Amino acid sequence: MAEFEKLLKTVFYYPDANSIAMATKGKERLRIDGDGHFGFGTRQNNQETVRIQGETSDASKLALLINNAAQNSLLAVRNDGNVGIGTATPAARLHVPAGAILNGIAIGIDPPGDIGFPFPYETVGTRHTAYNLRLHSGNVIHFHTGNSQAPVASIDLFGVYQTSSLVNKERINDLSSQEAVEILTNLRPVKFVFKGDRQQRCHVGFIAEEVPAVAASADRTMISLMDIVGVLTSVVKEQQTTILALAEQVHVLEAGYKDLAESAKSRQAKALKKTASVGKASAKAMPGQPARRRPKRSATSPKDLPTRRRKP
Q: Which end of the chain, C or N, has fewer beta carbons within 10 A?
C-alpha cells in the first residue's frame, strides 16, 4: 500500500521518477506522466477514468479517453480524428460498435465484431429483429416494420420485392371483374416532371390524390403499385376470357361461311354442266340453226285413219 493511501488528506507524490500525482482521501485523482499524458480519476491497471494525451506523431495514440468504473472505454478521440463511442480503437470518423439512435432512427450492427456497415449484417439462418433495416448475407437489403421477422420489402441484385406472403394476410377474397373495371376506370394516367429535377425528365404515372382509396396511402401522398397491378391483372383476365369467346364465335361463323360457299359453288357447277349438255344436243340436230322440235303424232292423224278404195 502506498504511503499516501494511509492519509485522508490531499497530497502530491511521485509515483515514479517521471510522473507526479495528486491524491485525496487516500485515492489518486490526477496524474501527469513523463509522456505528457494527463489523467483524471482512480488509476487501475495502468488506466485512468479520463486521460488527455498530448500531440503525437503516432496516430494510434489517444488524444482523449474516458472510461467507466469497470475501465470500459466510453469515449475515445484519436490523433487521426477518429472518434469512438464504446471503443478505444475507433476505425472511422465516428465509430459506435453497439449502434446509435439518430433523430429517433435506430442504426446498429450485429456482433461479433464492431467494425462494419452502419446497419445490422445478418448471416444465413439468422434474423435480428431489433432493427428495421438489415443487410443480409445474400446481398439483400430487407426493410422491416414493427421489429417483425418477415420483411415488407427487399432489394437485391435482381430487383425490388414487396412482401406478399399468405402468413401476413387475412380475409382473402377474389377481386371481381366489376370492381376491377370500376377501379381501372377511375385511374388517370398522366405525364409529369418532378419538381426540382434539373434534368427535367418526363415520367408516366398517377396522382396519389386522384387514385381510388384502395391504391393510395392514408395521407394520399403515395400509391401502391401492387394494388394497381392486381387491378390490371383482373381486367386483363376478364378481357382474355371475352377474346377467347369471340374467337370461338368467329371460328363457327367462318366454318358456316365455308360450307355455304362450297354449296353455292357446287350448284353453279351443276347448272353450267346442264346448260352445256342442252347446247350440244341442239347443235347436232341442225348445224347452224336452232333446233326445232318435231310435233308428236296424234291418234287421229290422217296417216292412222283407215283408207277406202274407189270402185272403178
A: C
